[in-house]
Structure formats: C-alpha cells, structure tokens
Specification:
heterodimer, A: alpha+beta, 2 domains, 7 helices, about 40% helix, B: about 200 residues, alpha+beta, six-stranded antiparallel beta sheet, 4 helices, 6 strands, about 25% strand, disordered N terminus
C-alpha cells in the first residue's frame, strides 16, 4: 500500500455519491465490480480496473476491504497492466515486414496506408509476446467530505483514473486545483473580478 | 481575468476544460504560495485556524519561482537557508512568483513536510516527520489512536494524518482567497507584501 509509505504524493478530487446513505454500499459495490480488474484477457495489450487496496495482485475485491470506518471511506487500488514493447524492436520488425511486402509485390516503396497497417499488426503481435507490466495506485474516497485522494501526481495516471472513475460511478471527479477550490469557497462570480497581480 | 467553464458530460471534454482552468487559474495558486511565504516570514510562521488552534508553517530550503507563460516563461530554483533566501526574494522583486515550495506544517503533536505545486495543488513527498505522540514520548500505534489494529488500522491512521494535513492546507488557502477577493482587504495586503519584497 502506497498510502502507508513514509513519503506519499497525491492529488485530490471532488466527487459526491449520487445515492442515499442506505443504498451506498450496494450501489458502490455494483459500480466497482463492473470495472474490477480482470487478469489476462487475451488480445488486450492494456488493461485497467479496480483492485483490492491491501493485496492488488492476489486478493479479490471484497466489501470488508473496500468500505472502511463504516461507510465513511471507500478504499480501492487502480491497477494498470500494459504489455510494452521497445520502439527499436517495433522498428526492426516493421522494416522486415515492409521488405517482405515490397519483394512480394515487386515494388520499391511501401504505400503510406500499408506502412500504417504493418505497424499496427507488428505492434499487436509483439505485444502478445510481451509480459504485462503492472502498476498500482491507491485511492481513498472520503464519502463524508466528498473528496477523493489519488496517490499519484502523474498526469497520465490522473487521466486514466478520471476516465475509469467516471465510467464506474457516472460521476466526473473534479480536480481540486486552485481555481475549483477557490470557486467552492467564494463562488465563481467573485473570481471573475480578479486577474493576475504584480507585487514588485 | 478568468471565466468559469462549465463541465460537459464527456470525460475528454471535461479534461480539456480543466486543463484550461489549470492554465488560466494558475496565478491564484502562485499568488497564494507567494502570500503564504510572506505571511509565514512576518508572523513567525504562526497561523490561527477557524477552530482556534495555532499552527506553525515554515518554508524549507527549496523554492521554484516563475514568471511569464509559454515562450516567455522563466524559472528560477533556489535552495539554501530560508533566512537568507535573498536570491528568491530578488526574483520576487523582478516579478516572479512561487511555483513550487517545500513547507513544514506543525500542529504541536504532528509535523508534516510536503512539496506543493502552485498550478495544480498536487502534494508531493509528504512526510510525517513527527507523529502523534503519547505522553511518555512514544509513537501512538494505530490501535491506540482508535483505528484498530492490522492493515486496516494502519491504512486509516495514515489516511487520517494525510487528511488532516490536506484540510489545514486548504484552510490556509481559503484564508488567502477570502482576502484576495475582497478589494479593500487585498489592497492593504498587497501593499504590505510589495513592501516586504522591496525591502530585501
């Protein structure tokens, strides 16, 4: 668990559940399980989904590991697995395939559309041979305050998280950046009247 | 001047709107960190929270300052003892503002250190350098803090410390934004801040 490390990095988002308290657990469980991480789907070079925060690789998602402190906290892990192939290997195999194509057709240049198709086929076929590289990121949803803590500050991971969260819960997690945080305190009208200041 | 951008249903469209808000509203975060540095240096680093608690806040040895945007963007990184951060103060006098800072927050029983990004409010490398302590000086374990034992207790205890830091940080920001959006209050605040910058 990244959250109990001696040093953590995180970004916050605002999201309030759209159901009543009594229905929270059944609603959230349904949303989470629909997008739970599934191991080894053949033909997929990239997978992501929710996993158990305590043991993301081995323990299945269970209600008692997700809902902590009563119904106050939802704890999950965003698990991403990607079959990565080095660019130089893709380049090498594309060159071999393009050469074979030219020989077969008796031409000296491969058309752009064919080049693109060859590259896609090479990428797909090499990805199948590569081992998926796993990465995991803890997520705590504080239901009482309506704030999500995602334990990553990478813009790529944040983008993946926002997409998966929206698909799962039908709620867009609004990043708590200076503007949105200020708006929550003063309202947007007050912010329309301010512009960058010069102090010096 | 910044305008409110309504969120649309699709995640990609929302992300575009957020990217725009980060760019256009980044000045709020930079002005806040600059204000926070000034405030912490003139009041001995003591701030009073809404609940009456006094907390200590100090800027640590590393600062990144920025001016301009896009091609005209200029960055300067300074490190050293905060008491003699003259170069950083000179950079302020040249129109730069604080983009990234490492701060130490002290509530008496807990001390955190973290790096704050002004444009996104991402929190990086948050460390709890002094945890809650028992009367005999020993660290309170998660079960003693009322979070139960085992992995769940450890997670909830860590999260409670992270959440407390975040709440205090947001409260400091709310102090700033209420002054910043009040024309009269901001005029006198700005004057004092500008004077501090000039007196380097």
């Amino acid at each position: 668990m990244g959250i109990i490390s001696s040093s953590v990095s995180y970004a916050c988002f605002r999201a309030a559940p759209t159901v009543l308290n009594g229905e929270l657990i059944s609603w959230a469980m349904e949303c989470i399980l629909e997008y739970a991480f599934t191991d080894e789907v053949e033909g997929i070079s990239r997978q992501l989904g929710w996993a158990n925060i305590f043991e993301p690789f081995s323990r299945p998602l269970a209600r008692e590991d997700i809902f902590l402190n009563g119904e106050e906290v939802i704890a999950l892990c965003l698990r991403i697995e990607e079959r990565k192939v080095a660019k130089s290997i893709i380049k090498k195999h594309c060159a071999i395939e393009q050469e074979a194509y030219m020989t077969e057709k008796g031409i000296k240049k491969v058309p752009r559309a064919v080049k693109k198709r060859i590259r896609e086929q090479v990428e797909f076929s090499l990805a199948q041979k590569a081992m998926p590289v796993p990465s995991t990121y803890d997520m705590i949803w504080d239901i009482i305050d309506g704030i999500i803590y995602l334990f990553s500050t990478s813009s790529r991971v944040i983008g993946e998280f926002q997409g998966l969260f929206k698909r799962s819960f039908s709620i867009y997690p609004e990043p708590l950046i200076p503007y949105t945080l200020a708006k929550s305190e003063t309202g947007s009208e007050a912010l329309k009247n301010i512009s960058p200041e010069v102090f010096a | 001047m910044i305008t409110d951008i309504p969120f649309k249903d699709e995640v990609d469209e929302a992300k575009e709107a957020i990217t725009e808000l980060i760019t256009e509203g980044a000045f709020i975060g930079k002005e806040f960190l600059t204000w926070l540095w000034w405030k912490s240096s003139i009041n001995g680093g003591v701030f009073t929270l809404k609940d009456g608690r006094s907390i200590g806040l100090h800027f640590l040895r590393r600062l990144v300052l920025e001016s301009g945007t896009k091609e005209a963007r200029e960055l300067i990184a300074c490190s050293g003892l905060m008491a003699s951060m003259k170069e950083a103060r000179v950079a302020l006098s040249m129109g730069k503002k604080v983009l990234k800072a490492r701060i130490e927050l002290n509530t008496g029983d807990i001390v955190w250190q973290a790096t704050i990004s002004a444009d996104t409010f991402d929190i990086s490398s948050l460390k709890i350098v002094k945890g809650r302590q028992a009367q005999d000086g020993s660290h309170i374990l998660s079960e003693d803090a009322g979070y139960g034992e085992g992995e769940k207790g450890r997670l909830l205890y860590s999260f409670s410390l992270i959440k407390e830091f975040t709440k205090i940080f947001y409260e400091l920001f709310f102090m700033f934004i209420s002054i910043r959006t009040n024309e009269q209050e901001w005029e006198s605040e700005k004057e004092a801040l500008s004077l501090w910058i000039k007196n380097v």
